[in-house]
């Protein structure tokens, strides 16, 4: 059975059991800030078990894209660990429970897939007699094939810091003794490869709070997850996941392109396995809009990409290579995930650009590491972390190179620094509720803000922590942050208190208001909720403007210019899009002109609700990676722009006022970022700029022709600089001749001189003058400034090979505690301790004598 056949077969089986087939959600969890990635099939269903949202169905089945990095170091070494994987699952929300889940799982494996039951073992939670009895009496498994295991094996969840969890029952497949670790204790649940877990049947019956308390779930049920890759290994009779039709075609592509061997050398095989796994993960994450970067999800993906690049070097691939595998990955998955085909070129170019960028920093990192190793007999945790953090240099590569030279890496100190960095990153994650929810009434809140900005409503649930009150309203006029648009702000007035709403966001299917108490004493009940319409109007101006910008970019640059992300705030926005070079000034002017013309045309902004199929027929653009329901909202601006969008917009384009692009930069490899302002914020910016120009005009004494006046000042400065340089050159010649005269008298080829007040340029001129006249000279020139030594070393042409200046400067700088670098004939340093200059001079002279 092929992978495509398996996906369809699984979904069809549970469809016959009255399950609703639910498409895979994005790898970016929409409303769970405690998760970086979608890590299990149940993530999109979490609110359905807790009862926070109305049930759209009681039974569901899906094939979910997942990403986990907890076992990153095991990927490629074992036959079963991966970063990206697909999870086949069936789910029950207050409907069937353990018996049906177990019976149907057994039916599917034995009667549909025809797996020989003699190879199957199961485990249950140690106290779960119900599940044990179902396996033993209903299914008929002998007691020696049913294991009772503890919570480390058979209690699952929650995904994140809170949510549904419960006991589970796992199904294992015995691959045979040749895969065993050989221990007498080897059995299902062992860490070796003999008994891979095939299917995990989780029975969510508790809701774990942030504090760890487990409360009964309103809709207890079933959450099963079966690794598509592991199941295929069994069905295709392979001895490794990497030999199935999900991986081996990628491995074959590696062998075809680079003529490398597979299956002969274990070390090479591990590297190739990791490359195949990681490029697959990169294709899917970039396809879902996660671009490698230095922040959050992007940081994880950059680490995965760089790990793969490093392992390419292990098999003799020194150049950018991963991007060449993208077409094969897309081809393998186009049947199940057709949207990947649309983005193949973009994904390829992003990966290629990231590879090329890292290969440059990799070389710099190698030079830095070589320098560190020369200075010390160990690589400190600080040095290893600097290489990792600044150059993207994997610590494994640092350890590998250090080991070759017999030098130790302080791994413990490195890991401590890494953990601190992770804690800082976690602390920056915003709006993860810390307190316990006090539930007054069930419900997730209904957004009514498209039509109303003031409503009388009631509080459904709330929690209080750190002077913050977070609450869910029955009807909420506040827009929750989504699609890049920031959440609404405003006021909530109770009987005897007032709350400031600082932010509104989604959390596990609920619209949550993040508030502080401004007056009175908080008490739940009926309230009046009012949106800050000034802030909302400015946000709407910026949001409608992003739609105009998106259309203008595509018309100006081409259809490849697709939105990759945005941040929309009152009066300003940031817009990321696919493009592989900076915009020219002429292109920016054209784009601004197109947008402002559409603003002046005062085009109505229509918001239409329709089916997804109808929207696609209209030509509405969808943001890749976003999940859309059967009914969607379309925002249409004449015949210029039409997109699927649930955000807050204006009634017509004229309300934007005007738009000005303020900056552009590279957001990531192959992704450009534009920042722009609109409306009142643009007016304030223009007024401030005019005020600045007037002030400049007053300083220059020119009411008009300011630009010409600035040019005149620049010309005068250039003339003064030229005169100054000529004077410096004359002084440098005098100083240099004095130093040469002194050296001749002392019959020394080492020149050392301290200057009282001189700049770096002057010292360089002196050094050049001496080097032109003497070929066998070495000089140290220095000046003390603000309690630090700035110094320069120069070397005559005849001594450059024996005493390269850039090596001498490092040795001297090490003694004084500063830093430095340069070229073989001249190098500069700074930051040295004045108390150690004599020691450094003595070291230099002794070195030359030897």
UniProtKB/TrEMBL annotation:
Recorded domain comment: Consists of three domains; the N-terminal catalytic domain, the editing domain and the C-terminal C-Ala domain. The editing domain removes incorrectly charged amino acids, while the C-Ala domain, along with tRNA(Ala), serves as a bridge to cooperatively bring together the editing and aminoacylation centers thus stimulating deacylation of misacylated tRNAs.
Keyword Membrane: no
Free-text comment on the cofactor: Binds 1 zinc ion per subunit.
Record carries keyword Transmembrane: no
Molecular function GO terms recorded: alanine-tRNA ligase activity; aminoacyl-tRNA deacylase activity; ATP binding; tRNA binding; zinc ion binding
Principal place of residence: cytoplasm
UniProt-recorded name of the protein: Alanine--tRNA ligase
Residues the record lists as binding Zn(2+): 543, 547, 645, 649
Cofactor(s) required for function per UniProt: Zn(2+)
Coiled coil regions in record: 703-749
PROSITE patterns listed in its UniProt record: AA_TRNA_LIGASE_II_ALA
InterPro entries membership: aa-tRNA-synth_II/BPL/LPL, Ala-tRNA-lgiase_IIc, Ala-tRNA-ligase_IIc_anticod-bd, Ala-tRNA-synth_IIc_core, Ala-tRNA-synth_IIc_N, Ala-tRNA_ligase, Ala_tRNA_ligase_euk/bac, DHHA1_dom
EC number: 6.1.1.7
Key words of the record: Aminoacyl-tRNA synthetase, ATP-binding, Coiled coil, Cytoplasm, Ligase, Metal-binding, Nucleotide-binding, Protein biosynthesis, RNA-binding, tRNA-binding, Zinc
Top-tier EC class: ligase
Domain of life: Bacteria
Function text: Catalyzes the attachment of alanine to tRNA(Ala) in a two-step reaction: alanine is first activated by ATP to form Ala-AMP and then transferred to the acceptor end of tRNA(Ala). Also edits incorrectly charged Ser-tRNA(Ala) and Gly-tRNA(Ala) via its editing domain.
